[in-house]
Amino acid sequence: MEKQTLIFDLDDTLIHCNKYFRATINTFVSTMQQWFSTLTADEIKEKQLQIDLESIEQHGLHSSRFPESLVSTYKFFCEKQKKEIKETEIEEIRKIGVSVFEIEVQPFPYMYEVLSTLQNEGHELYLFTGGDEENQSRKVVQLELETYFGNRVFIFEHKNTEALQTVLQTIRSNPKQTWMIGNSLKTDIKPAVELGIHAIHIPSELEWSYNQIKLDIDPTGELITLNSLTQVPTLIKQYAKEDKAL
């Protein structure tokens, strides 16, 4: 069996993430509706999403972006409805936003078993995740992922093709034996396809609209969609055997 280089995404690939943001946004909406009785939940969510996505271009995936998108949404509707902006309300909203980064994250089912299997079969595991150093490192430490990734953890606030290229230049792996594994078409799969490595797409049940794009690139490597993280070891084992046979 030929050793493969496996680059994993973290959020919503190995661990739950988006469900915490959805719950936090629902709390934000409920709070907003106490102050803006005529606003619908959809109106609030659509404006927050618009502001959040626009701020990614400037701030990337830094955790400070999300609470400020809630505050900006509050200010937008205050101005629109000529309501007084209150510092006490801003502080309450900011606390709601920050709370999502204090939640104890949970791994996907069988995450540890999957990583252990791949590690025991001799494959080299890397982590390529988007966000700020403090928040993403918190998750890695909390879930003891150093056991599988050691110091092979790459954190980027702007997670894109350029970031993945930096990873590949650092690890100097064989592209024909290198895989990007993740849920995001935008930040995982598209960069992998553009850089000519293999890609495994595992769609998330609760996908963030930021991650949803249409791939219009013909892959030079393998591009495979799986239903579950648990299917990865079997696929890699099969491919590694075929690779050795060649």
UniProtKB/TrEMBL annotation:
Pfam families listed in its UniProt record: Hydrolase
Secretion signal span: none
Organism: Priestia endophytica DSM 13796
UniProt-listed InterPro entries: HAD-like_hydrolase, HAD-like_sf, HAD_sf, PGP-like_dom2
Domain of life where this protein originates: Bacteria
UniProt keywords, alphabetically: Hydrolase, Magnesium
One annotated GO molecular function: hydrolase activity
Name of this chain's protein: Hydrolase of the HAD superfamily
